[in-house]
Amino acid sequence: MLVRDSTDVVVKPPLSQAVGYIVVVVIGLVIAFTMIFVTRLLKRTVGEDNEKTEMFMTANRSVNTGLTASAVVSSWLWSTAMLGSSLVGYVNGVSGPFWFAAGCSPMIVFFAVLGISCKRKIPEAHTLLEIVRIRYGTTAHVVYMFLCLVNNLFAVANMLLGASAAITALTGMHIIAATFLLPVGVALYTFVGGIKATFLTDYMHTFTILIILCYFSVKVWTLEEIGSIGHLYDLVKEASVRHPVNGNEHGSYLTMTSKGGILFGILHLCANFGLVIMDTSFFIKAFSASPRAVVPGYVVGGIAYFAIPWCLGTLASSVVLGLETNPIFPTYPRRMTSTEISNGLVLPYAAITIAGKGGAAGILIITFMAVTSTLSAQVIAVSSIISFDIYRTYIRPLATDADVIRWSHYGVIFFALFASGFSTMLHYVGVDLGWTLYMLGVLTCPGIFPTAFTILWRRQSRIAAIVSPLLGMATGIAVWLGSAHALYGAITIATSGAVLPCVYGTVASALSPLPYSIIITLFKPENFDWADFRNEKLAFEVERSSSIAVVDERLEVELEGDVHDQKQLKRWGKIAAIWAGATFLGHWVLWPLPMYASKYIFSQAFYSAWLIIAIIWLWGTLFMVGFYPIIGGRVQLLAVWRALWVGKEKGGGTPSSASTVGREEVHVQGGKA
User: Fold this and answer.
1) In a domain, 120, yes or no
2) For residue 215, what is the domain's CATH number?
3) What is the pTM of this model?
4) Where are the transmembrane segments (predicted)?
5) What is residue 388's predicted lDDT score, i.e. its pLDDT?
């Protein structure tokens, strides 16, 4: 990508600007007002009051397994995941999408270990930073606040840069207009609905995205120029002859023996560990899940997610590589330029090739829904930092429920505007999706081990927790920029966004804090008592009026049992650790490395099996995301329906009717109540 012709050749957008504004503004507002209506409905029927902090920030810690799993998939279903996996597939061949997926699933599953550990040790927490403050004090709190905010800011910039470029390419809409308008609907429904609105919107968006992706997985075979998997294999094989990949076995796109692919895999694995562990939105969703939902929700969600970048990236990049020389391809007769590749346009061009304007509209919708869904999680995360970790901690320690909610609202608006402005600045200095995709880990990784040790290792000292991530960030930045200068003779946007400097910088940033923390701790280790976490009251009182329906009664049953049953929570912790180890072993060792070492080039039969399994897995993810939350939430859905029906019969209904329905439903469900 450093040497490819980057002449700015514009492909005429297949859709009009009006379509872009309708999707970004009108549909965004429709979704926002729909979520506001749902929020009001839940308050009236089952007593979920988002004017209370515990409901706004943690959904009263009652979210079920299905909705948790759906939210986990949605949290990682960035526009970058779809655009980026297709990009690395186009550049590196079939290894690219696989390593993209393998760089996400293991750490999502690993987060179940941290999530259940937090549930056991500090069940009233709202954010990661509260945990850091209680254990290490103010200085550490400020340091980790900086690390988390940097993580959230660059994650959002990465999403907005990719999504805005794709929307501009598809509609001709001005890229800055897209950058500022995308967060509008997100800010609106997050402002009103809080984390529960985020969960519900995650579900709706992710279900819609997967329906469209599954449609593409079928539609592609109706294209006359492709026709079958065997013919697509032949087309990709011919592309390997025309444009062999440097570093791949025999230059083939059809091999896991790819230097560029495995380097990206290492980079992506480290970067995503940083994104998961230092992203407060992941902790908020873990805190919001019921104790029984944390581990199965994250395990199921992490494994299901694997199919999306793997299947979509393989399919889209294969279509582009195979049909790039065909007159039906948007850039024909030329190849894609480095600017188009780095802006993430492989997927949009593939969709246009497969389904014309309909394909362009489909990518426009999924890009919009992906970026708004993940933006919502980031906005609520930063909002929580502003309200809990800044306002409630340093400005007004005795803040009331209403005060914290008001500052949460301020945080939603502030971060939406600031992130848009920051992304605009990056665009004008020449930064795009490709650059942020590769260098992201340099800034997100320094806190991985110190943060995990904060939750899992009682011996880590306060000084180690404070100093090691700062030293790690300094080490990572120095290695990153130093490598760029040493390898390419200058530090520019192009050289600092190249693969090798980013790999070296990310690995240094991720791993160096491990020895820093251990060595510093050895001088004066601590012996922290986990019980100290419970000495500080963090949760606001949850008012349980007669309107609270079935989900809250079920939560009370859990609180009497599993939450205070340390043995049960420890058992969940062991299950999470086993699944985390098995996922990493499978996705990073047993599956890919033998294929890399054997220098195997896919046969037609193997490529067919590879793609068919990916497509089946994708459809399985659709059913998990689409129907599992409905099955898991059937009790509350039924309670809402009955409350509305009873209310209608009584000429408007009362909250007590919902409560009665809820109590009856609990007795039906296995006699637990």
Assistant:
1) yes
2) 1.20.1730.10
3) 0.83
4) 20-42, 62-78, 98-118, 139-161, 167-192, 262-284, 296-323, 363-386, 407-429, 435-456, 463-481, 487-507, 575-593, 605-628
5) 80
